Amino acid sequence: MNPLDFLETAHDLATSSTRRPRQTNLRRAVSTTYYALFHCLAKCCADMVVGGAGSDRSRPAWRQTYRALGHGTARRRCERRKNIRQFPAEIEDLANVFVDMQKKRHGADYDPDLVLFKPEVLQDIDEAETVICGFPMAPRKDRRAFAVYVLLDIRS
């Protein structure tokens, strides 16, 4: 799955009407934007731990690693400012937007009183695209360390 495809779908939902989009479309756009970030991170984890496309990798191991990423664990790790600041800006930016969009997704999916506005949703989509496109610019060793950080238990 290409994370940018999720963002294209989110954009389509948010701009589905020349008038005011339905709240359900804006809610789905927010949720889909979060999932673009989640799948970007899951793909990074699988590629960095097992091997990317073109490498000699076990497809079942790659899929297991991809699926191992937990929403709550990833959010909690990304919220740890002291640890996240040790990574390059591209990773720190993705971590910050990931946390923000997960909160927004929870609101969009579960808060019946939430009212969303098209300009803010489109801004979130643009911000997610910026960090997703910037993320691969971080050095490979740092992306690998980040994958391990969000996937594995931390023991002292």
Notes on the structure:
It is built from eight helices and no strands. It has one domain: Four Helix Bundle (Hemerythrin (Met), subunit A) (Up-down Bundle). It has 156 residues and is mostly helical. The model has no long low-confidence stretch (mean pLDDT 95). The chain is globular and about 50 Å long.
In short:
By secondary structure, this protein is an all-alpha fold.
The CATH topology, please? Four Helix Bundle (Hemerythrin (Met), subunit A)
Biggest sheet layout: none
Separation of termini? 35 Å
Helical coverage, percent range: over 70%
CATH class equals Mainly Alpha
CATH architecture: Up-down Bundle
SSE-based structural type: mainly alpha
Number of strands: 0
The DSSP helix count reads 8
Shape: globular
The low-pLDDT segments are none
What would you report as the Rg, rounded to the nearest angstrom?
16 Å
Strand content: under 5%
> How many domains make up the coordinates?
1
Can you give the mean pLDDT? 95
What is the topological layout?
Elements: H1 3-14, H2 23-49, H3 59-68, H4 71-79, H5 81-84, H6 89-110, H7 118-134, H8 140-151
Helix pairs in contact: 1-2, 1-7, 2-3, 2-6, 2-7, 2-8, 4-6, 6-7
